[in-house]
Amino acid sequence: MATTINQSFLQLKSNLEITGLQQATVSTRQQNVRDALSTDLTVLDSFLTGSYRRSTMIAPLKAADIDIVVVLDVSYFKQDGQAWLLDKVKATLKKTYHTSPKISRNGQAVTITFTDFTVDVVPAFNRKGGGYLIADSVNGRWISTDPKKHVDVWAVANTAHSGDLVPLIKMIKGWNRQHSGLLRSFHLESMILEILNNIKIDSYSSGARFVFDKARKAVKGAIYDPAGYGGNLADYLDTQQKMDDVVSRLDTAYNRALEAENLEKQGQTALAVAKWRMIFGDYFPAYG
Q1: What CATH number should be reported for the domain whose range is 5-17+150-283?
Q2: Average pLDDT, rounded, for the chain
Q3: Do residues 82 and 142 make contact, with C-beta atoms less than 8 angstroms apart?
Q4: Architecture of domain 20-146
Q5: What are φ and ψ of residue 258, in 5° steps?
Q6: How do residues 243-287 score in pLDDT, each as one tens digit?
């Protein structure tokens, strides 16, 4: 039962979590996928990555992707073999998952669509100088990245914020999902990381309002991979219409958060909760 804004945000935090049973299912499933690949391919390393590994994945699990990086022996590397590599991984997975799940090749991964969630398998090679090379079959190129470093960067930042950064990131991701999902997950997370650098999170409510405020400007600029690879993460917002839509949603969220804080100060908690529910949807508990 939530009758204060603080209680409501704690319930919001809980509502965004996947359950312990779901975590157990993910653990078993991802290990089975990794084992299936090791049967036919020379795998040097494999590990979980993405929002699940950074602890920023939000419920429901059915709408989530579990990312697995599989580091292969260099013998599979071809300078122009991005599509070939993904097709080889797909064919290998089909030997194990040949009946129920749908398996498809995407730009940088092979996606296994299970009934409860999807798994993205990203083949990679060790990169000279550190990090990894992953295939971009759409543009016919190899992309440098380091998902292990992403995990470290997020963990260090979360510790610096006394454990409040990751929950706040998940709350903003919940808002994004409730309002058309116009922002890509990693771009949004990286932008929040930058916005809150050296900023103290006094409360989840004031933190959310602060992020919405600063993101209106930050989203218009370049946001780069915190691991130091790649170009501008906002490149997909490549038309004025896309940018205007994102800024408009951020502006609406900021104004509603501001109104909610003012209502709370006036002792009108129920009305403040209603405002927050306009931002976070059903993730945010109703008053009472």
Answers
A1: 1.10.1410.40
A2: 96
A3: yes
A4: 2-Layer Sandwich (3.30)
A5: -65, -45
A6: 999 999 999 999 999 999 999 999 999 999 999 999 999 999 999
